[in-house]
């Protein structure tokens, strides 16, 4: 298991981070965000397991989830070369 490759993107008022998960099992560990860093997660490629205090679910290419401030959550790649984009709001 390793961490996904992350790239930050800034364009005016929009801030995003692109996460590339090279291998099955790559994981972005559980974490939460402050009110300033809540975000939408969009799966652009592959399949990801999302986990948190509510349990876990599989999200796939085209799925979008919203993560409110102070909600613990993390991601694990279920397919190699998966990609998610987090857009802060």
Question: Could you walk me through the main structural features you see in this protein, from its secondary elements to its overall organization?
Answer:
This protein is mainly β and 89 residues long. The chain is 0% helix and 62% strand. It is built from no helices and nine strands. The strands form two sheets. Strands 1-2-9-4-7 form a five-stranded antiparallel beta sheet, with no helix packed on it. A hairpin with a 2-residue loop joins strand 1 and strand 2. The protein is globular. The model has no long low-confidence stretch (mean pLDDT 93).
From the N-terminal CA to the C-terminal CA, the straight-line distance is 30 Å
* Topology pattern, helix = H, strand = E: EEEEEEEEE
Strand content: over 45%
Poorly predicted segments: none
Please state the oligomeric state of the protein chains shown: single chain
Strand order of the largest sheet: 1-2-9-4-7
Number of strands: 9
Structural class: mainly beta
**Percentage of residues in helical conformation:** under 10%
Major sheet size, sense and barrel closure: 5 strands, antiparallel
| Count of runs of 4 or more consecutive helical residues | 0
Radius of gyration: 12 Å
Morphology call: globular
Mean pLDDT: 93
């Amino acid at each position: 298991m390793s961490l996904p490759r992350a790239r930050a993107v800034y364009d005016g008022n929009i801030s995003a981070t692109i996460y590339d998960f090279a291998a099955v099992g790559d994981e972005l560990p559980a974490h939460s965000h402050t009110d300033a860093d809540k975000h939408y997660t969009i799966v652009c490629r592959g399949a990801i397991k999302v986990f948190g205090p509510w349990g876990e679910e599989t999200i796939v290419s085209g799925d979008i989830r919203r993560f409110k401030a102070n909600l613990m959550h993390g991601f694990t790649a279920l397919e190699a070369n998966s990609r998610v984009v987090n857009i802060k709001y």
